[in-house]
Amino acid sequence: MRAPRILLLEAAGPESGAIARTAAASGYQVHAATDPATHGAYGAGLRRLLSGCLLADLSRPERALKDIVGYARRIGADAVLTANEYLTPLLAQACAELGLPGNDPDRATAARDKAAMSEAFALHGVAAPRTRVLASEDDLRLLRAAGELSLPYVIKPADGAGSAGVTVVNDPASAAGAWHAAARSPRGMYGLPPDPRVLVQDYVEGTEYSIESITRHGTTTHLCATRKTVTPGAHRVEVGHCLPAALPPATERAVHQEVERAIAAVGIRNGASHTEVIVDRDRRCSVIEIGARLGAGHIGILLGHALGIDPWTALLDTALDRPAHLAPARRAYASVRFLTSPRTGRLVAVTGLPKEGPGVPAVHLRTAVGQTVGPAQTNRRRLGHFIVTGPDPAAVERQAEQILAQITVVVDSDRPPHRAGSPAVPGPGPEREATRAP
Ligand SMILES: Nc1ncnc2c1ncn2[C@@H]1O[C@H](COP(=O)(O)OP(=O)(O)O)[C@@H](O)[C@H]1O
Ligand SMILES: [Mg+2]
């Protein structure tokens, strides 16, 4: 029997890379599809494990679909999958054309674009915050003038990700700025056609969780709930995830029920989903968003440490139309904390980082000293992370907090860095600010 052939829509990035490495280690032939610019940044290790790569113009989805389907046929792909949320609508269409397990191509945009998502949620009775789609700032003014919005509310771009352009509006004076932040926030990847609309949503107070699930032929298995630590204030950035989160059984059932409604609403039939929910004080669950992919932010790694689940193999098996091993192999606990900058400036140092070792399997700084950093307003601005794991949730959380308290992020003053080619501005030397993370 020949080894399975896998086509990954995007092989770079933590989750995509993990799938590519897992597939190669299983003896599969691994191919990728990406755009030429992203391919230029593929590392040597990734290039070595790929048997081939399709360079497509992803900014023209119809053309890209033809190219992907043609390439998949040429290599005899047994599975096409992605961990990149931006590519999930394209993936659904490709799988449908190829007759491979995938999601409903007619509804796949609803798992990416929050305007389409809110319509799908309303149609399927998913418990979600009331959402209005704004075509222009005038729409926001009209809603406010009509007394239709009560504070606080949330303004967000229709097709954003990673909290970019999302603002919790607490006072009327910041509404216009929030609209502009959403309208102007950078859109998408690969030059994919943007959705310029902006959403205004009721604010839901409560504790935030994500649910990782895998659906096969329309039947869903929930892998676990992850509790999020999110920054307070106008900009909500995820600064910690821990799993498995223990929800009271009745709450867990209610959450799973809403998640399954959301999965059905956006046509997820085969593959992973990452559903973000907020559970309020009365244990009511609201679905904030869903993506047809596994959670990012190292959730896949945490699943391995805490529960012994290998999500990458599970995703490959599901895409290959095989039953996946989804039952926990152990019952431990894992927590990731992200490091953030206290302010805008140049990163001088990060001190007090722990060493990797037993119980601390990962410590990673992704931002180099000298780079310009800023306070976390999007997940992208996070500087690095560490993971703590162990059998006892309380002990793991304690240890994570202790480690965090030891770490100091040192940032120069917020004078703009000297630009090459422009005259140096004489002035006082940089003042420093050191702040404990975060
Ligand atoms: N309706 C809401 N009520 C309360 N908090 C929200 C709401 N919408 C978004 N948030 C907060 O903002 C964060 C980012 O918003 P989200 O809709 O998940 O966008 P993104 O796709 O950028 O992650 C969420 O994780 C949550 O903390
Ligand atoms: Mg989100």
Q: What does this entry look like structurally?
A:
- With 438 residues, the chain is of the alpha+beta class.
- The chain has helices at 14-25, 36-40, 44-49, 61-75, 88-98, 114-123, 137-145, 175-184, 249-265, 299-307, 311-319, 393-406, and strands at 5-9, 29-34, 52-55, 79-81, 131-134, 153-157, 167-169, 198-202, 207-216, 219-230, 238-243, 271-279, 285-291, 333-339, 345-351, 362-365, 372-373, 384-390, 408-412, 432-436.
- The protein folds into 4 domains: 5-98, Rossmann fold (3-Layer(aba) Sandwich); 130-202, 2-Layer Sandwich (Dna Ligase, domain 1), CATH 3.30.1490; 206-331, ATP-grasp fold, B domain (D-amino Acid Aminotransferase, Chain A, domain 1); 334-436, ATP-grasp fold, B domain (D-amino Acid Aminotransferase, Chain A, domain 1), CATH 3.30.470.20.
- The protein has 12 helices and 20 strands.
- The strands form 4 sheets. The chain has an 8-stranded antiparallel beta sheet with strand order 13-12-9-10-11-14-18-16, sandwiched between helices. A 4-stranded parallel beta sheet has the order 3-2-1-4, sandwiched between helices.
- The longest helix is centred in the middle third of the chain and has 17 residues, at 249-265.
- It is globular, with a radius of gyration of 22 Å.
- The chain starts with a strand and ends with a strand.
- The structure holds adenosine-5'-diphosphate (ADP) and magnesium ion.
- The site of adenosine-5'-diphosphate has 19 residues, from strand 6, strand 12 and strand 13.
